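Following up on my earlier thread - several people asked me to post the actual chain instead of describing it. Fair enough. Here it is, all 327 residues.
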Amino acid sequence: MNLRSRLAFVRVLPAILLASLACGAEKSSSSASGETQTSADSMGAPPADARATPIRTTRNLRESSALAMSHDQVGVMFTINDSGNDPILFAIDTAGADRGAWTIQKAKNVDWEALAIGPCATKSAAECVYIGDVGDNDAHHPSRTIYRLAEPTARDASFSGSAGAEHISFTYPDGPHDVEAMYVAGTGDMFLITKRALPASARRLRPALVFRVPAGAWASKKNLVADLVDSLSIIPGSAPFRTITDASLSPDRRRVAVRTYSQLFVYVADSMTGRINPSMSPAICNLVPLGEAQGEGVTWLAASGRFAFSSEGRGAPLHLANCPVPP
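Reply from S.P.:
Thanks for posting it. Predicted structure:
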């Protein structure tokens, strides 16, 4: 999304979301997806114990497009800016404090949109940060890139460093996709979830697609094609602002949180493979009460269902809140 479009989006989003909720209170005719519009209750339960925490940094963190909580450094999470910005990995904590920044050497931020923490290799105890240069608003990039680097140690607001990263490039089997959501399983497999509406026919939309890039890709690095392994119950485009902007695997690897601009869907996952269980319905949380300008990032603070949410926009706060999770 270019700057002019983003500014316009931020100005009108809260009003449009509230309007869509009001309209949703009444039943209406079938939508383009072939589904019946449901009541505002279908937005899900509101978040509990929510609070906004200012991010206290003077750095150029203005378009936080993803979040990833460290498994080893208590309270520390990482974030990134999206397209048009420098290739920098930022660290903050749950109190909103600046915990350092690292320029990724020999990397380019074409459209950084996804971030995850996962093992550096299969059966490895070391943790790595995965950065997904996978955004593609117009679905025209023939290939996309994922960077991987050893998780840096958080510092303080005065620290700026650099870090090396390896990378892989891959394609999708059915052509380009716009993706902003990625998580990494305990096996090291990388899962990517499509963002936007995908037409299935003249009157129906497809569910969000889930692709997998296997951990072994880091060894081969050539002619990589992601596998289409699943689809979700979320149908992008079936409701206002129902486009997928981030995903996060829980610390116990038993659930996957998938967010849109206005909702959080929490799915049960296989803790061994990272695959989402399609037979169990997700728990849904209504994020509109958080009042985000343009909700983009999500990460788990606790497996019990406490999350951190980030939004694009200079000075946008970090939101911490509880949302329901499936048993």
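The chain has a mean pLDDT of 89. That should answer part of your original question.
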